[in-house]
């Protein structure tokens, strides 16, 4: 019984269109080792957006979307700094992105969002058929958050030792051309992104040469 305002409607449509574009562009972009993980993430995200809209669960849906969007612009800012060859600014944005990503997706998301959808809703109205689907998709996102957070922490720790973010531990290119592999790994840092720049962290923290990027 939550009202759907026009602003909320357009916000949902915009997010849904964006993730559908990521779903299609993933098959035309450079294939990386986390291709399957990203595919699962996009499916879960599209399913959650569609499901929450159809069932009028717009309040929790908006919270989840905003929470995931919170760190995305920092990742894109770090990419821009890398393209402009401002290494220190790139590293600073990446470190800030890592902090925001971990706080929102390992802190706020599980202890606020999941706690409400899993436990408080169970006590209030009990489980129902769509409850299992809804929470199953939300938990799937949390598993991906843990995986990406591990990669972000590993990259950040190496950056502190080396003095800069220098290599992505996540997305070595899976290419049929050995020359492309060598070129990618030797000339692109963690801040580098794929040629079309279509992927991001929201899921997302995906694509590109960033650790933890969707």
Q: Main attributes?
A:
membrane, transmembrane helix, 214 residues, mainly alpha, 69% helix, single chain, disordered C terminus
Give the helices and strands, then pairings.
Blueprint: H1 6-25, H2 35-54, H3 58-69, H4 72-83, H5 87-125, H6 129-162, H7 178-187
Helix pairs in contact: 1-2, 2-6, 3-5, 4-5, 5-6
Structural class, please? Answer: mainly alpha
> What proportion of the residues form beta strands (DSSP E)?
under 5%
Helix content: 55-70%
Task: Indicate how many domains the architecture comprises.
Answer: 1
Mean pLDDT, to the nearest integer, reads: 79
Order of helices and strands: HHHHHHH
Write down the Rg: 18 Å
Number of strands: 0
Main sheet specs: none
* Backbone shape: globular
Keywords: Membrane, Transmembrane, Transmembrane helix
Catalytic activity: sphinganine + octadecanoyl-CoA = N-(octadecanoyl)-sphinganine + CoA + H(+)
Pfam family, one: TRAM_LAG1_CLN8
GO biological process, one term: ceramide biosynthetic process
Short description:
This protein is mostly helical and 214 residues long. Helices cover 69% and strands 0% of the residues. It has one domain.
What does this structure look like?
The protein has 214 residues and is an all-alpha fold. It has one domain. The chain has 7 helices and no strands.
């Amino acid at each position: 019984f939550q009202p759907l305002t026009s602003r909320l409607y357009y916000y949902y449509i915009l997010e849904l269109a964006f993730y559908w574009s990521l779903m299609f562009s993933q098959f035309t972009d450079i294939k990386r080792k986390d291709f399957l993980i990203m595919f699962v993430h996009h499916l879960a995200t599209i399913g959650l957006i569609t499901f929450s809209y159809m069932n009028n669960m717009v309040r929790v849906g908006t919270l989840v979307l905003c929470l995931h969007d919170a760190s995305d612009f920092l990742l894109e800012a770090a990419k821009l700094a890398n393209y402009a060859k401002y290494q220190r600014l790139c590293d600073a944005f990446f470190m800030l992105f890592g902090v925001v990503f971990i706080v929102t997706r390992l802190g706020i998301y599980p202890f606020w969002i999941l706690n409400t959808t899993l436990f408080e809703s169970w006590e209030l109205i009990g489980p129902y058929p769509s409850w299992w689907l809804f929470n199953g998709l939300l938990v799937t996102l949390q598993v991906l958050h843990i995986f990406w957070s591990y990669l972000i922490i590993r990259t950040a720790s190496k950056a502190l030792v080396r003095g800069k973010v220098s290599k992505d531990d996540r997305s070595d290119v899976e290419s049929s051309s050995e020359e492309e592999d060598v070129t990618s790994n030797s000339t692109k840092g963690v801040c580098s992104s794929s040629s079309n720049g279509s992927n991001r962290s929201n899921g997302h923290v995906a694509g590109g040469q960033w650790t933890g990027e969707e």
